């Protein structure tokens, strides 16, 4: 299903033009209009899903396979030195467009970008407490 007023639904389904790198029945891959680096791309499912939790499992697997394929092509054509996959879910995590998308960010030595976090220093007890909360 497409969602009314969702810009990525419109882009993915070709109602709004985009710099398309790849398209198949389920996905469109486009260039990000405000790229972190040269070649920064987004994998968009054509069916609307708010985020990773909302995306059908099969589509999630396909998105990752597509990331691998596009990453290889980018490495060859752009001669990039690395690749970050970034995928934000919900506002607190930096998601600004509520339609699942997977960022493919080619990295170049000395590109000046910093996709990073400040490392924490939890005690062993803190690590164990959170492990117990999550582990199954
Ligand atoms: P996020 O913060 O993970 O939700 O990322 C949203 C991304 O979409 C940002 O990197 C934006 O630059 C990009 N973006 C927003 N609107 C468009 C658009 N119309 N075409 C291409 N990229 C877009
Ligand atoms: Zn959508």
Describe the protein.
The chain contains 3 helices and 5 strands, in the order αβββαββα. The chain has helices at 7-12, 57-78, 124-134, and strands at 20-23, 27-31, 41-45, 82-86, 102-107. Strands 1-2-3-5-4 form a 5-stranded antiparallel sheet. The chain binds adenosine monophosphate and zinc ion. Residues 3, 6, 8-9, 48, 99 line the site of zinc ion.
What is the total tally of β strands?
5
Q: Could you say which structural class the secondary elements and strand pairing correspond to? A: alpha+beta
Distance between termini? 33 Å
What's the alpha carbon Rg, rounded to whole Å? Answer: 17 Å
Number of helices: 3
Helix fraction by DSSP (H/I, runs of at least 4): 25-40%
Q: Return residue spans where pLDDT drops below 50 for at least 5 consecutive residues.
A: none
Kindly report the average pLDDT value.
97
- Overall body shape: globular
Can you summarize the main beta sheet?
5 strands, antiparallel
Q: Strand content of the residues, in percent?
A: 15-25%
Order of helices and strands: HEEEHEEH
Strands ordered across the widest β-sheet: 1-2-3-5-4
Write out the distinct hetero groups bound to the structure.
adenosine monophosphate, zinc ion
């Amino acid at each position: 299903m497409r969602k009314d007023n969702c810009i990525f639904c419109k882009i993915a389904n070709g109602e709004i033009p985009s710099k398309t790198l790849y398209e198949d029945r389920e996905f469109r891959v486009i260039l990000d209009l405000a790229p972190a680096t040269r070649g920064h791309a987004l994998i968009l499912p054509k069916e609307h899903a708010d985020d990773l939790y909302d995306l059908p499992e099969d589509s999630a697997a396909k998105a990752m396979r597509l990331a691998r394929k596009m990453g290889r092509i980018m490495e060859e054509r752009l001669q990039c030195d690395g690749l970050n996959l970034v995928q934000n879910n919900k506002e607190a995590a930096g998601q600004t467009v509520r339609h699942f998308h997977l960022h493919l960010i080619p990295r170049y030595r000395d590109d000046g970008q910093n996709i990073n976090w400040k490392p924490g220093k939890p005690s062993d007890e803190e690590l164990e407490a959170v492990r117990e909360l999550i582990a199954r």
